[in-house]
Amino acid sequence: MIDFRHKEVQVEAIGRGGIETCYILPHYQVAFDVGRCPDNLVDIPRVFLTHGHLDHSAGLPYYISQRSLRHLPPPEIYCPAEIVEPLGEILRLWQKIEGFAYAIKLTGLNPGDAVEIRRDMQIVALKSLHRVPCRGYAVLRRTRKLREEFIDRPGREIQHLKNTGADIFIEKDMPVFAFSGDTIIEFLQENAAAREAQVLFIECTYIDDKRPVARAREWGHIHLDEIIEQRALFQNEKIVLTHFSKRYTKRYIHQVLEKKIKDKNFLERIFVLAHDN
What we know:
The protein is 27% helix and 32% strand. The two termini are 13 Å apart. The protein has a single domain (2-272), classed as Metallo-beta-lactamase, Chain A (4-Layer Sandwich), CATH 3.60.15. The chain has helices at residues 54-57, 60-69, 84-98, 155-163, 186-190, 192-196, 213-218, 224-229, 250-260, 264-268, and strands at residues 2-6, 9-17, 20-25, 30-32, 46-48, 76-80, 105-109, 114-118, 121-128, 134-146, 169-179, 199-203, 238-242, 244-245, 270-272.
């Protein structure tokens, strides 16, 4: 598991394309995908599944069962609305196999649906394009700032206006983290929250000519060449490339990025989330 940190965002991450994907944000007590259920996932009460492929979801029955065995509250599980019924059926069968019942809170999400995780924070489902129903997600933090016309007013006056209930603040939901799930490059074009998030985790399954862009798109994935071509869209402070094909070593990935990315400012914003093979 790789520990990633940038400002308030901390992620305990596993991102191996076709093998296992799980991103845990311990400060927010949420996780995106479950992979094969790493041990530190069990204490996390909310899980957001991007899609049902096994490298992203296989550990879900084990996760639920382990929470039940530890007498933890039933977890909140969110997934694409299209897979709620078959996923629920699978979980009911696992209860039958295990011989005991465990409570399940399974909720389907459509693009634009939001889940409040704190008074000042919510997670929004994003439209994601893959071979099967898929969602990306963005963590939004609500901020409250003085309206521009009041910025230069003295503190005493601001306090008076606040006490009288004057409309002097503007509220805005700021994306602090976003995750694409498995998708194609249009995900970035269609989701402002992903483009503007402080930290964006975006899949980059293929990186060289052995698996060209056309092949990546055929399988519902992103190629490094597309990310480079669309680099102007990335407004993020940190861009985490993840979900690399298992055919690439960590060293090879860094070599290819250094060779292909001529924009050094863009390269400096990239974090390669790759595991040693």
